[in-house]
Amino acid sequence: MSDALRVVIADDQALVRTGFRMILASQGIEVAAEAETGTDAIAAVRRTLPDVVLMDIRMPGMDGLEATRQIVSGGVGSSSVGSGGTAHPPRVIILTTFDLDQYVYAALGAGASGFLLKDVSPEHLVSAVRMVRSGDALLAPAITRRLVARFARRDDVPVPAGGQDADTRHRNLATLTARESEVLRLIARGLSNAELAAHLHLSEATVKTHVARILAKLGLRDRVQAVVLAYETGLITPGAAESA
């Protein structure tokens, strides 16, 4: 994979876009374009084929959630190979000042690979962009805790994993090996590839292979959907995640 990393910033506030651009540029990350609306963001993605999109939720006209749905669906910027050498749609990180559940679940349902509040530190922002570009998913720790609590209540689970029904998801779990099931449980606890490797005494390359096979077998887009599926199917429970 090329070291080049290109980002589109979509936010209706010029100061926010400028701040993000300066942070990313200081770390050698190219901002390929900026956008003030969801419609502009889609046009920018088509024009520049970035690796990652930083997407505000609340923008005039088309909001960030609808823009994310269209980008992640494969209809925008997916027919060409981006700077990362891959032919998948750009990864989307949702950024908002509103720490509200409805946006978390809507963002996950729209296909976002990450969700961060706008008061994120510069270091965390840069790390998030690099993480989702590599195929990982990212949620702010406070949001992850609330997501787990939501699944603990088991009422109105908002995000179907991979668009599959419950019976299909349970059947697919049976295709996993014992090791893959273990890796999925650890993914649901929020462990990164490096942490998985240390916990399981494996190389990161081996961990990446396990993760790729899990996603392929379960028909999932990314680790966000893997976490959702683990809770939906009862493979892991919030209590187990907290105590493990």
TrEMBL record:
Q: Which molecular function GO terms apply here?
A: DNA binding
User: Is Transcription regulation there in the keyword field?
Assistant: yes
Provide the HTH luxR-type domain boundaries. Answer: 169-234
Per UniProt, which keywords does this protein have? DNA-binding, Phosphoprotein, Transcription, Transcription regulation
| Residue stretches making up the Response regulatory domain | 6-133
Q: Name one GO biological process term.
A: phosphorelay signal transduction system
4-aspartylphosphate sites (modified residues): D56
Does the keyword Cell inner membrane feature in the UniProt annotation?
A: no
Which Gene3D superfamilies does this one have?
Answer: 3.40.50.2300
PANTHER family membership? TRANSCRIPTIONAL REGULATORY PROTEIN NARL-RELATED, TWO-COMPONENT RESPONSE REGULATOR
Protein's name in the database: Response regulator transcription factor
Lineage at the top is: Bacteria, Bacillati, Actinomycetota, Actinomycetes, Kitasatosporales
